[in-house]
Model the fold of this input.
Amino acid sequence: MGAWVRHMHRLFAIESPSSDHYARTRETARCLTVDRIRECRHDDDLARCETMLVEARSGWLYGLDRAFNRVERGTLLVEVRNRRHLLSLGRTAAKPKGPRFDVTLLPDAALLRLIQTHHDPGIVVALRAERTRRQGRDNENGAGTDSSGPDPVDRRILLDRLVQRARADSGPPSPLYGSSSIFHERAVPAVPSAKGTPPEGLHPKDINPEGTST
Done:
């Protein structure tokens, strides 16, 4: 594309009203095709080409207005602008045309939701056929038709394992209480020593109100 633009500018600069010059200019200009525009990956060259097509009647001795008719120039201009827009999006090729979505790639939850909410009866029929196909595949594989979560038996096994792991991480029961129940009795205070020293936190009168040694 860049070489074509530069060569066309050199031809435009030649002021030679001859049939050979006209034929050479026309032949070079007709090298610009839709396929070559779609193969170009340089936006600056496309911008120069767009300017040449827009200003086809800008006073050149033999311009693009004489090499292409109005319909051909319009077609090429549309392709150039589409190509520039595609490159600005970071793409080198347009997306292939096809359905808006593929029912085989939908998750189960989305498939069920579209079956109940989609307004196109034809698409709903296709969605139901896909659901039937998935159910038959699950039955053949022994997985059942419930794909929302694990089986209730598996859930109970998982819960038991979590409880056992929590008990193992908590360690042995406390020696003070000796039980894992949430209701514990208070520990019995220690008996005072022979010297009459009360346990820590107790007054002597709490042990012997009369103040006599036992």
Summary: Residues 162 and 168 are 10 Å apart (CA to CA).
